[in-house]
Design goal:
The protein is 14% helix and 42% strand. It is mostly beta strands. The protein has a five-stranded mixed β-sheet with strand order 3-1-9-5-7, with no helix packed on it.
Length: 153
């Protein structure tokens, strides 16, 4: 390989490495100097459930204000399915500031075959989070909902 081809290859590799370091979600990074937080929702549906649940876009949140998100779930199966839901946060310390006013996750959800259901979540972030040193720099929060078939008890 000639030195000019090696030089071009080296430039190409360096450019690709640079591009790979650019975050894909530039809009979902909250500034450390801002009081705003970014909530990123993650949805996981267990294979055995046979549902599809949409994932909301990241939201910019102001502590102390009430927000509502509606998830849509579709039962693709030919039979009624009952789901249980677990939820969690990253970082885990966020839990003490997150108030769920209304959430589908408190109950089991029964969805008939080939039907769609709206799943509301209403929440508030306690403004006390603004005094927590942990959240002065990192204002990006992940809320995860895990859907799985109801466990027979």
């Amino acid at each position: 390989m000639s030195s000019s081809k090696r030089g071009i290859t080296a430039i190409f590799v360096a450019l690709m490495l640079l591009i790979a370091t650019i975050p894909l979600n530039l809009h979902s990074k909250a500034s450390a100097s801002s009081d705003n937080f970014i909530i990123d929702f993650r949805i996981n549906v267990s294979y055995g459930l046979g549902w599809r649940v949409d994932t909301p876009d990241p939201m910019t949140i102001i502590p102390g204000k009430e927000y509502k998100v509606n998830l849509m779930a579709v039962n693709d199966m030919d039979s009624t399915k009952i789901a249980e839901i677990m939820y969690g946060y990253l970082p885990p310390e966020f839990a003490r500031y997150f108030l769920l006013v209304e959430c589908f996750c408190y109950d089991t959800i029964k969805l008939k075959a080939k039907r769609i259901i709206e799943l509301p979540v209403v929440f508030i972030i306690d403004p006390a989070i603004l005094k927590d040193r942990k959240f002065r720099k990192d204002k990006n929060i992940t809320i995860r909902f895990n859907f799985y078939p109801q466990i027979k008890r």
